[in-house]
Write a structure and sequence with these properties.
heterodimer, A: about 280 residues, mainly alpha, B: mainly alpha, 2 domains, 5 helices, about 5% strand, flat
Chain lengths: ~280, ~100
Amino acid sequence: MSRDLGSSADVSQANQTRAEIWQSRPWQERFKEGLRAGIPLAIVTLVIAISFGVVARPVLGVAAPIVMSAVIFAGPTQFAALAVLAVGGGPVTAIGAGVLLGARYAPMGLTLAPSLRGGVLRRAAAGQAIIDLAWVTASRRSVRPDPVFMIGATVPTYPPWVLGTAIGVIGGGLIGQPERFGLDAVVPAVLLALLFGGQLRPQRQMFAAALLGGALALALLPVAPAGVPVIASCLGALVGLWGAAPADPTAPAGAGRRDSGPGVDPAIARPREGGP
Amino acid sequence: MSDVWITIAALAVATAVLRASGPVLLGGKSYPPRVWAVMALIAPAVLAALIVTETVGEGTSIVLDERLAGLAAAVAAVVMRAPILAVLVIAATATATLRVII
């Protein structure tokens, strides 16, 4: 499915406005779109899960890694805890490392929060669908990520996450080291593909935020505990405070879409609610 | 209960709480436009940070290895507008090939 937001003004505007004003569209449709977007993510997830199973087996045995994937369902958290346990670290250190890597879910959840209605339990349940790949996909699609689309994109990744872990644990002996197949390069490559999302000339502010976030992470990587660089990178988003003040969110979309002046992300200048 | 199971149980709860935190604390409230301007940029900032840590990170140190070649291949694939699964395969192949050669 094309998520091209940049090449042809008319087509991209139609596409993005469609994705952007998701509030007015039936949830079933958005959920199905999420499911479709989740299929490639599921394959990526399977590959990562197999890697996890392979490296977890010698440390945790057979049952624990599979249960871990089933109840935690968070790659970075699981890999971090595993790394601590593998070098003989205690549970407190392992839990601490896992929590630091999982802390990114808090700011991710904040971007979803305004779109979530309903009671506390319902909102808490929706938050459980936050995984890096699905949240990123939803965020790249519309400024205000659609929780229904994100849940749809997360659903297909759960079975391969658990199943892949089992495959890795049981078949690990046959597979050998995941690095042999370059599987450790899969995650950054896929994230890169998602960062561009078919859009080769990102808006200036997005580019600035990405550059700053990446630089912060690189600077903190050798000095801060694992997980902190990613959380600190959120500060890169503060470039959003610079540049022209955001346009009136009720202004009609269209005029000046392709070049909306210095520093203004056109996506932000568009109506988000389908009306005032 | 062994250390491993304590870790798993605690992380299952902690992860669920972290995932619920944003939606529970701020659910249904709308942000002012300036806040949205910042929120909308969290994704690219975090994404870039994830790419950095996954490519050159090894625990808490910077390690430059064959993953960089995988990322370079991925950049080329993305520029040529390859679909996401092709990007995956290309990056893995480049990394694995370089490991065989070196």
